[in-house]
Amino acid sequence: MFAFIVRRVAQALIVMFVISIIGFGIKYSFGDPVREMVGINVSAAEREAYRDQLGLNDPILVQWVRFVKKAVHGDLGRSFFYRKPATEVILKKAPATLELVFASALLVIFLSVPIGIYAAVKPRSWLARLFMGASIVGVSIPVFLTALLLIYVFAVELHWLPSYGRGPTSLLFPGWESNFTSWKAFRHIILPSIALSSIMLPLFIRLIRAEMVEVLQTEYVKFAHAKGLNPTRVLMVHAFKNTLLPVITVGGVQLGIMIAYTILTETVFQWQGMGFMFIEAVERSDTALLVAYLVFVGVLFVIVNTVVDVIYGLVNPMVRVSGRK
Amino acid sequence: MWQKFKESYFWYSFRRDPVAVGSFIVLLILITMAVLAPVFASQNPYDGSAIDLMDAETPPMWTPDGMDAFWLGTDAQGRDIWSTILYGTRISLLIGLGAVALQSFLGIIVGLTAGYKGGRVDSFLMRVADVQLSFSSYMVAIFFGAILQAALGVARYADVAVPFLIFVIGFSEWPQYARTVRASVLAEKKKEYVEAARVIGLRPMRIMFRHILPNTLTPVLVISTVQVANAVMSEAALSFLGLGMPVNQPSLGSLIKSGFAYFMSGSWWITLFPGLVLVLLVLSINLLGDWLRDFLNPKLYKD
Amino acid sequence: MKRLLTVLALAAVLAFAAAPASAKTLRLAVDADPVSLDPHVQLSGGMLQYSHLVFDPLVRWNQDMGFDPRLATSWERIDDKTMRFHLRKGVKFHSGNEFTAKDVAWTLDRLKKSIDYKGLYEVFEPAVVVDDYTVDLKTKVPYPLLINMATYLFPMDSKFYSGKDENGEPKDKIGKTSPSFANTHASGTGPFTVAEREQGVKMVFKANPNYWTDRGNIEEIDMRPIKNEATRVASILSSDVDFIMPVPPQDYDRLDAADNVDLITMPGTRVIMFQLNQERNKAFKNPKVREAIVYATNNPGIVKKILKGRGTAAAQQSPKGYQGHDANLKPRYDLKKAKALMKEAGYADGFEATMIAPNNRYVKDEQIAQAFVSMMARIGIKVNLKTMPKAQYWDQFDARAADIQMIGWHSDTEDSANFTEYLAVCPNKDTGAGQYNSGEYCNPEVDKLVALANSETDTAKRKAQLQKIEQILNAEAAFVPLHWQDLSWAGGKNLENAREIVNVMNYPYFGDLVMK
Predict the structure, then answer these.
(1) Between B284 and which of A16, A115, A137, B27 could a Cys-Cys bridge form, CB atoms 3.0 to 4.6 Å apart?
(2) Looking at the record's lineage, which domain of life comes first (chain B) (predicted)?
(3) Which fold has domain B100-296?
């Protein structure tokens, strides 16, 4: 296990290394940050001088080496717009995104598992058909239409829930503004998290059902039934455990994707998280923040994927994470 | 040949499933309309001289201010919504299917290789996938867009927009396939039939493609249907950032997007009708995909 | 659908539930909040709006394009190059320091160090302090716009900004991208002080209890950026905020019809145009082709349909009220004439051209560009349009990446010559002249006239020179003029004088606002 972790950390470093190279490669495609910082009447010569001062005119390799040197000490550069260290900006916005993903993940897990199993066990029941029908319709509606629909019905028609922003958040612990500390703030997270889970949920229901149906056909489940074991126990322990493998793989990837790309949901609901920050940074060509964001997301991915692989190994001992040499 | 097809199990099980037949018909109609767009459309919405700004934001025919010439109304530029839906569906379908074909092709190859070979090859390919996944299609588009612009200049963009978008969306989302396929391969690899194939000395390529691949297609199909929808949406999102279809050749997605600002202000038809068509399109693809999955997974039919 | 519209308005009700609606709190929703507390960090509309809240200028523009005294009570020209300002006595900064002529001189020095302002103040000599309440502003050459520039001079508290901060940096440092004392601390003489700020999320201003003059009755301003247009509009329709700016054109009619909201629009001074690059596309070298394009452009139609009538179709750069504005120049839409001109020029079959435009810079910029492409199709010009966000646009613009490029221009000096200097004089990389003239139009006579006008202090003569420029540009179809976009605001009915506090510069003077 230890060797596995060490290797994964090494890999993570390489991934970050590569991402930082690519990040630097593309940062000029986002536009000139100086352009966004100065008024339009500022002369080309002045802008050039300012770019010199910021080191933006140095050869890209020099800039990159400078970046890596600082990154080793945990400094990912300074956001041009916020005038703060990029990591500080990202960490300030991260709780919003993580809470949103957390709420969506809860929704997905607590709904998809029972529904998926039920639909597999009783495929012919009307309820199962309803769930499957609803899930296929759900998966066919683009997130932005779902979000619009939610806002229209629950915020506009019924006035039940707020339609945008994080509302009156309060400190969960220093550095973490939370929506889970009061009902007033919690109401703000409901619609965005439903919207975010609207694509994942049907996908998981369908996946769990499909895997479950397959497992139920296997000999060992039939044998377990034949042996007269408690049917619920057979279902949960023998059958469900074996569906977890693909579910975890897909789930891990999707979780990573949710964290990184809540962009669309955050934009529609103006949720002040990392996705919203990313879009704004693109608009302002705040390239320092963009590169930091890329590296940060890359790290998140590696962490999530590592955790997934570890769980994968626990669930399925046939896959040895350490790899026998 | 036809006779043989008619007697096949494929045709039999298809005919017996009304949902599959229904969605197939809907999809067929949509595809026909899209392919024959110039025939069904009352104007060519991509031809500037055919549209008139003065017709802009005309509501649908049956509303008090509607005009007979535009039965579904017009958008903010005066394009006939009906005609634009037809032309836009054509482009969206092309991009969606093209991108999914590309991403599944890349993803399956990488996933199979990684899962089957294991070891260093596996961890290398999966780390590549990590890197790729952490760059969303926005960034891939910005990156390649910049290269393309440097190579061709902004002028030629309109001519290469469609293949460019297929490439960008296809290239940015293959890791989902790769990871899914790899996971299935890992599970399949330990099964007796693979061991058996190896023992009798079949070449790895043959084992991978002829024996393992067919058994990993279930999750691939589950993903594919979603991915077509995602590809269409990615295209819309890219259009918004100025990286998608040229604005005067709207696709379904960009038409919805462009109507968004007007939706709240009363011109609901610009978003609603293309939105309905998009949902219908994706839904019928999904339903067909569902049926196909059940069909390809004959184990389900044993009981 | 009517119902949907009304109820959509309530979408944001609960979002603002937290802000208690005390009677004299102005809840303000803007598209973006100020980027800094330091007025010299950026020359932009948003920063100037902020400056008018926390600082006071020497003089300020009124609705009739005249000047109102603020910290300067009167002023007079002493000679060609000098203007004397008499300052208000007994004014205190937020810090408690007395305001004197020294602060004016100090602020001018600092302006000359700011990247954004140094160009505008290039022509100024350091100010001369005559006594505590008298200061002379001097220019290197005779400069007709000296008083215009005094509107940008918001005296800062020189004592407050002197010394070192806790990081050992001088407190007067202008931190464009780095932290600085001035970025997070402010002391001006203005009607409000900054009480709370979370960048990009909210900003709270409190009334300055020691303000030097009568003011409105706003005790507190709760400013929040709401980027999304529809949400911003919904928030005022549901009375969750008292004032929004700007208003998107598609919602003008809806806000006009609402019982609880006053829509305020005003002809703006930002001109929008397309430049036709004569170096890239040889066809544009032919004045007949350029003229044909102007004739084929239905800019009154664009104003009517895309801007919903809230704009003024243009045939020149200078808006009404500017010295160079010539009322005889009228929009020239005439398709027949355009086709005839194309034929005369030898392009009866048309030609192809490329075009770029931003998609998030000007009001409905992308829509306008698309409409133009359709209009060009009618005279056989096939235009290949690419739109992009402004962050990427200006690089392409500078590189002259397409034959036709869109630009909007607001004159920072509120004067006609500024348009011509940036947009129409012969481009020269070394001197920086014609920096935004991507049409590469060049007429030495125009250059000569601008140079003359820039040092002409006789208003009548200057007017004639500037109008002559507009006539030449119009006759030669130097560019395709589109319109001056309207400014727009919306206020709740509880605001008594919202109409009086706005102006064509788009700096609402919230200090004067009275609320029921």
Answers:
(1) B27
(2) Bacteria
(3) MetI-like fold (1.10.3720)
